[in-house]
Write a structure and sequence with these properties.
Length: 85
């Protein structure tokens, strides 16, 4: 969840894969992650399309991918979880 947007965990994991795949490019040619938006990616899950219409889409995508970071278990990534840290 980010603000009024709610997304399935599996979709957010796919988003993270897309965004991580963007980092495989030559680092000198890369756009900073905070300004990268996967809206032009053809494999972007459809539920993220409304986010693409917003100016702050890159930051929303960044926060969502942080929520499913490698160091968090699925339970902790769930908005209903409390006290994981």
């Amino acid at each position: 969840q980010d603000g009024d947007f709610k997304f399935p965990l599996e979709s957010v994991k796919k988003l993270k894969e897309l965004m991580d795949g963007n980092r495989q490019v030559n680092p000198r040619m890369m756009v900073p992650t905070a300004s990268y938006s996967p809206c032009q990616e053809k494999y972007l899950p459809e539920e993220f399309r409304p986010v693409c219409r917003r100016e702050d889409a890159p930051m929303i995508f960044k926060r969502l991918t942080l929520a499913v970071g490698d160091d968090l278990c699925e339970i902790c990534a769930n908005a209903a979880c409390a006290g994981c840290f």
